[in-house]
Amino acid sequence: MGVLIWLESTPLGVWVHESPSVWAQPTVLTLHTMGMAVLVGASWVLDLRLLGISRNVPLSAFRWVFRAVMVGLIVNLVTGVLLFVGRATTWGTSIPFLIKMGLVIASAATLMPLRSYVLRSDPEQREVSGSARLLAIASILAWSGAITAGRLLAYLVP
């Protein structure tokens, strides 16, 4: 708990959580939301393709997804750390936050094998393996759970 107290009391933590400036929590939270939209949106585009939507489009057409995912992931990593530092003692010990982080890690873990699968696909490959479909389902469920747990922080954690 000492590290969490220290984090929250740093000038950065105080600024993010307590500053009345629009550049503090409102901007950081807005950027976090936008990063999540890019990250999860791009991920879902691929997941839905792997599950059969737009079967006539080759998998190679979805290679762009991983650049978008990387941008969203970087934005969310930076803004997520900033948001956490502002509420470290509260969130660092809350069940919804820990669930959210576990689901974010699970979601990100599905991206690596899916990336490898898509990047190694033939230029005209349209069929999808069963394991890729299962990863797509896991990805959708994990991202949905992470978003839900993150949103519940506002309601369940004082």
Principal-axis shape = elongated
Biggest sheet layout: none
Mean residue pLDDT: 96
Rg, nearest Å: 18 Å
Strand content: under 5%
Terminal Cα separation, in Å? 17 Å
Q: Give the helix tally.
A: 7
Order of helices and strands: HHHHHHH
User: Runs with pLDDT <50, length 5+?
Assistant: none
Number of strands: 0
Structural class: mainly alpha
Helical fraction equals over 70%
Any overview of this molecule?
It is a single chain. 76% of the residues lie in helices and 0% in strands. The chain is an all-alpha fold. The longest helix has 27 residues, at 130-156. It is elongated and about 55 Å long. It starts with a helix and ends with a helix. The mean pLDDT is 96.
Brief account:
This protein is mainly alpha-helical and 158 residues long. It has helices at residues 2-9, 11-18, 25-50, 65-86, 88-91, 95-119, 130-156.
Give the SSE map.
Blueprint: H1 2-9, H2 11-18, H3 25-50, H4 65-86, H5 88-91, H6 95-119, H7 130-156
Key words describing this protein structure:
76% helix; 158 residues; 7 helices; mainly alpha
